Sequence to fold (225 residues):
Amino acid sequence: MPDDTFSAMRQSIIDGAPDTASDLAQQAVAAGIAPLEAINNGYVPGMHAVGEQFAQGKMYLPDMMASAEAMRAAMAVLDPELKKLGTERPMAGVVVLGTTQGDIHEIGKILVGTLLSAHGFRVHDLGVDVAGVEFAVKARELSADIVGVSALLTTTMRNQKCVVEALEQAGLRSQVKVMVGGAPVTRRWAEEIGADGYAKDAMSAVALARSLMELKAQTSAVQPV
Ligand code: B12
Fold:
């Protein structure tokens, strides 16, 4: 089943067909396909194809919006399945998550949040188009361990730096680790803006968040009382 199913999933995103995307997700769940496998091998490649066709002028904004709608329909089925994985895990850390100011892309960020929750992190999602200071205010309010910042546009990834700066200005930088991600983001960019880490996808974001928690525990252990 998988190869045909995955290519049908990919096509449902390219076609911008929410009903088909949702039906296929339900069939996958019924067949016991791991939800993350369906997302990574079926739906996400569809999104990449849409992005490429948009860049080449073969698809337009309404098409991209229809594809996003199809992705959301699939996620509405798969999200609860992913969340089930995380029941009864000890609390791993508190994460404040959001998409940078000026940017409304949310699908990848939601996926990161879902997987972090599924792995025991308590996630507060600020949504999209979030100013640096809003991250800092929420991080203080929740005593967050990690702030996660998503950006999908080359123009808005600069605003990830504003989040690091806002945390510095709020005097929180030593307590809060910053991780960044999104399609145009790279490890080098993360280093350049003074973030603590970069992850290329949602599963790597979980591994990164865990290692940042370990780092945090080590640094707080050596600090003078
Ligand atoms: C869907 C989509 C949209 C939808 C978004 C719907 C929504 N509610 O999210 C809509 C139609 C609204 C849209 C609008 C626009 N878009 Co758009 N969009 C896309 C598209 C096709 C897919 C994005 C996506 O959902 N991918 C699937 C998810 C699962 O992947 P992901 O987002 O990369 O996330 C993963 C990783 O990056 C990582 N990650 C993500 N966030 C984080 C955060 C942390 C902390 C970590 C650790 C990891 C992490 O983990 C995620 C899960 O594995 C991309 C193409 C692409 N290849 O990215 C273009 C793309 C991003 N869009 C683009 C453009 C140009 C636009 C518009 C400017 C178009 C316009 N003319 O208006 C507007 C911008 C609006 C705005 N101000 O934000 C360009 C950006 C080009 C650039 N260099 O900046 C792209 C690359 C398309 C292209 N090839 O030209 N878009």
User: Anything to note?
Assistant: Residues 44, 47-48, 50-51, 54-55, 61, 64-65, 67-68, 102-109, 111-112, 148-150, 152-154, 179-184, 199, 201-202, 205 surround cobalamin (CB under 6 Å). The beta strands are 93-99, 121-125, 146-150, 177-181, 197-198. Residues 61-84 form the longest helix (24 residues).
